[in-house]
Specification:
glycosyltransferase activity; Rossmann fold; 14 strands; alpha/beta; transferase; Glycosyltransferase_grp1; eight-stranded mixed beta sheet; 54% helix; 45 helices; three-stranded parallel beta sheet
Length: 917
């Protein structure tokens, strides 16, 4: 079997080797085999130190994000631990913060990260959630208390001390924040003892951006301690002492010692302008040796140090050892204007390292996968330098692709070295950006330069795979089949099988006896709880309410799910009092996309037969898509058991909404054919909305066979509640109109349009904020857009939150826009989230496409606007606060029309129709 004889060490080495190349199929497959050779999470964690040593951490993290062998939670843990080892604590926190802290390992990991960040506010939230005490050492606790007080966070210090169970000094009286008219001496003379300490911290907070006054405060603090007139600094290990020592060292020209003290202060959480000014002084005299590289890199990557700033450029260009620093520049913090000033300075510079600096910077741009902060002038300036690095052409090509200036791409290939290499890089970039048509166009041009490069041929096969061109994919795989071995040979077999399935419908050849039916309804699901998404929530509500109605629901999930290496063929668990079965092959080797689909179907059918012999269901009720449902429906038919096929969406249209070239392709038509095949086999067909029902009828499904059971909501779970105070305080939402989105962050949700409209609204209204809760493939682009539109102070990207906390976020959001685009899948499929919003008594806004028209009555239960019309969306956002009371009407509507306890009764009618027939 695949990977059976390959040792994990060899798989790890093979995967690490692929990180140096943009060859994702090899990366994905080798990583999967390695992860599944043991416990996937443990295997992933074992790779971290090797990856960091090879300096391929970012490529590794991207591969982890693509992995199908890891859960979302496991991916985030691996990302967080990687960033933690790299000392990129902010990145580590963003990876892990949305995971529940109930498990000790997660809590300890979060605590480590927040301690390193010195993020007092987040740390307090974490401790209050866990309520089991801190795992920090006494020394670390005291350091955190000291930092809180020096930064003027006295209330937080008090709360921390209580949670740490550390006795605090009794404070009497009140320290007032300094006013504008008081001198430092006058202010400090008002207080003594602990209050002087508190007053001093307020001064530091006030003058953090004033270098001269801040320096005076540092010297005053040390002098007061030395003179013994007061001891308001309790230890000699604070960043204040580091700053003082650094200043003295600079005066003595001991720049190396000063450098070390500056780094110590930074590590302890200091971020003042004074610290930055001293660093600039030191860099004028002290080179950046290898021992400081990681520390300086962190200063840059956290945004504290801006080396594209004119002051720093002038200093760094005088040092041969400084060129490496430019590989750490944060591209997302650059504007076009700032970049051009930077390049213009390099063009005019006579520095011996200017070309090295440009090349280092080009390398950063080469690896940056989002919108580049460049324009035509940027390239005109770059062309004034004696630059011969082919990375320049790749960067320009990437920019042209992002700007959709496809007609100008030929200029990149007209001359210069490594023309073919540039083609290969841009083929990959277009592929990563999901511009598969462009990737194919470039690949077809490249193949004219080298007609038989196995790597290019393999890329062409991958492009046709994504576009859905089954025959073209197989054609290219045939050309290199003699080079395919082990794991890659399976792909060739899968491609051949897809053609056979496209040409002839799959059947299960086994002849079986009829099975005596019992009383259970066997729900065949693609996935189920504990995974949480719209599909699994609908499934949970259906089986839960069917049980309440006296039916006997039982659940089985598709063959091979969940993905884990060590399983038995039939596993069982109870979830909310309902039997859940899991079907697996030995070692879980037979799964979707791992073996030919025909083999998967056959094995699935065999195992499903054994299950129904055990359960003896009255009805087999299988849900989307055909890969999950078809084997179950065919086995049920042969066993004489009535069946229902529930169409919750058309996955080929979901793919086509993201990949335009997929629409009408071989794979699109094959998937549509098999969806209709399932509808034909089943005794009844359930759909989730009128639009989807009409579409199936147009495709030839008998309308008399179709029943509609729309999405719904449990209004006893989702109901109006008081706003969550902690969330309001955390995201500074007081006295603001809060807009929000909770759900999967995908292209077809229209969030790009929403952010553009929100940016327009911000020009008119200041007291607005947007909360984005969720995760998904479009999140990186959304983060970039927020930065580009300068919305970072008005938009909070929360990430995924535990399902138990979703209602808390619903409570603080006033208005929920759902700006789905006018894609086919959006016109046909109704989402579930708007009903939760309506049940909470909140105002919904939806784009006017058929599926959403089924959910909202304009100006009665919500608002509508033209789909993909940014101005119309902005107008609706602006008017929405005047219509907030519609949220009450929308709740009344869902209670009457979309309550799961009512909707679930529709299934009784569906099942009765089967019995009558």
């Amino acid at each position: 079997m695949e990977g059976k004889l390959v040792k994990p060490q060899l798989l790890a080495k093979g995967f690490l080797f692929t990180l140096s190349y943009h060859y994702y199929p090899a990366q994905n497959r080798l990583l999967r085999l390695y992860l599944e050779s043991g416990k996937p999470l443990n295997r992933g964690l074992q790779l971290i130190s090797k990856v960091i040593k090879s300096k391929k951490s970012e490529v590794f993290i991207e591969a982890i994000r693509r992995s199908i062998s890891l859960s979302d939670k496991e991916k985030r843990i691996i990302q967080a631990r990687t960033y933690l080892q790299l000392e990129l604590y902010e990145y580590a926190w963003n990876s892990i913060k949305s995971i529940s802290s109930t498990e000790s390992d997660i809590f300890i990991l979060k605590e480590k990260i927040l301690f390193q960040m010195r993020d007092i506010d987040e740390y307090l939230i974490l401790l209050k959630e866990k309520k089991e005490g801190s795992s920090l050492t006494l020394e670390e606790k005291q350091e955190l208390l000291l930092f809180a007080s020096l930064k003027g966070k006295w209330e937080q210090r008090h709360d921390l001390a209580l949670l740490f169970k550390i006795e605090e000094i009794n404070q009497t009286g009140e320290v007032l924040y300094p006013n504008e008219n008081q001198s430092i001496d006058q202010y400090l003379k008002l207080y003594s003892g602990i209050h002087k300490y508190q007053a001093f911290s307020y001064l530091m907070q006030k003058y953090e951006l004033n270098v001269d006054v801040y320096k005076e405060l540092i010297q005053l603090a040390i002098k007061v301690n030395d003179d013994n007139t007061s001891s308001f600094l309790p230890t000699s290990s604070t960043f204040i002492h580091d700053l003082y020592a650094a200043e003295n060292a600079i005066c003595k020209n001991d720049y190396l010692f000063a450098f070390n003290k500056i780094i110590d202060a930074f590590e302890k959480g200091e971020r003042s302008l004074y610290l930055k000014s001293m660093l600039l002084k030191v860099l004028k005299h002290q080179g950046t040796g290898a021992q400081h590289q990681q520390k300086i890199a962190r200063m840059i990557q956290t945004g504290f140090l801006d080396i594209v700033n004119t002051d720093f450029i002038d200093v760094l260009l005088k040092q041969e050892s400084s060129a490496f620093l430019f590989q750490y520049v944060k591209v997302e913090q650059l504007t076009i204007e700032k970049f051009n000033v930077f390049i213009e300075g390099l063009v005019k510079s006579t520095s011996s390292i200017r070309i090295k600096v440009i090349e280092a910077f080009l390398n950063v741009l080469y690896h940056y996968d989002y919108q580049l902060p460049l324009d035509n002038k940027s390239f005109e300036l770059l062309e004034e330098t004696p630059l011969k690095n082919p990375l320049y052409k790749v960067v320009k090509g990437k920019w042209l692709i992002d700007e959709n200036k496809i007609d100008e791409l030929d200029s990149v290939f007209n001359s210069g070295r490594k023309k073919y290499w540039v083609y290969m890089q841009l083929i990959d970039y277009a592929f990563e950006k999901e511009k598969y048509g462009l990737s194919l166009m470039l690949a077809n041009k490249a193949v004219k330069i080298r007609s038989f490069d196995p790597i290019l041929i393999r890329k062409l096969a991958s492009i046709h795979h994504r576009i859905g061109n089954l025959r073209d994919k197989l054609t290219y795989l045939k050309k290199i089949r003699f080079l395919l071995f082990g794991a890659f040979r399976a792909e060739y077999k899968i491609a051949k099988d897809e053609i056979l399935l496209y040409e002839k419908l799959w059947t299960w050849d086994r002849q079986i006896e009829k099975i005596d039916v019992g009383t259970e309804i066997l729900h065949v699901l693609n996935k189920s709880l504990p995974e949480v998404n719209g599909y699994t929530i609908r499934s949970k509500e259906i089986v839960h309410h069917q049980k309440n109605l006296g039916l006997e629901p039982v659940v089985v999930t598709k063959y091979g799910w969940p993905t884990k290496p060590r399983v038995t063929s039939l596993e069982h668990e109870m979830i909310d009092g309902i039997d859940h079965y899991r079907l697996h092959s030995p070692k879980n080797r037979i799964r979707l996309n791992i073996v030919p689909l025909s083999d998967y179907f056959s094995q699935y059918a065999d195992e499903f037969l054994e299950l129904i012999r055990k359960v003896k269901p009255k009805i087999v009720h299988a849900a989307s898509n055909f890969q999950n449902a078809l084997p179950a429906l065919i086995v049920a038919k042969k066993a004489g058991i009535p069946s229902v096929y529930e169409v919750r969406g058309l996955w080929q249209d979901s793919t086509a909404s993201k990949i335009p070239e997929f629409d009408g392709s071989d794979r699109y038509l094959m998937q549509q054919k098999y969806e209709l095949y399932c509808c034909e086999i089943a005794d009844r067909v359930v759909v989730i909305g009128d639009s989807l029902a009409a579409h199936l009828v147009n495709l030839g499904v008998n309308p008399g066979k179709i029943d509609i059971v729309p999405n719904g909501v449990d209004t006893s779970v989702f109901y109006p509640q008081e706003k969550n105070v902690e969330i309001i305080q955390k995201y500074k939402l007081e006295h603001k109109t809060v807009y929000g989105f909770i759900g999967s962050i995908t292209k077809y949700e229209g969030l790009n349009d929403l952010l553009y409209a929100f940016a327009l609204l911000k020009k008119e209204k200041n007291n607005i904020h947007f909360l984005l809760i969720g995760d998904g493939p479009a999140l990186p682009q959304i983060r970039e857009q927020v930065a580009t539109l300068k919305l970072t102070n008005n938009v909070s990207i929360v990430g995924r939150v535990p399902h138990t906390e979703v209602k808390d976020f619903y409570s603080v959001i006033d208005i929920f826009p759902f700006p789905r685009i006018n894609a086919k899948v959006c016109r046909l499929v109704t989402p579930l989230k708007p009903f939760e919003v309506m049940a909470m008594g909140k105002l919904v806004m939806v784009s006017n496409i058929p599926a959403l028209n089924e959910m909202v009555i304009h100006e009665e239960t919500g608002l509508m606007f033209n789909a993909e019309d940014i101005q119309a969306l902005k107008r609706c956002l602006s008017l929405a606060p005047e219509y907030k009371e519609l949220g009450i009407a929308s709740r009344e509507w869902v209670v009457k029309n979309r309550e799961w306890s009512i909707l679930s009764k529709l299934y009784i009618d569906v099942y009765k129709k089967i019995e009558r027939n």
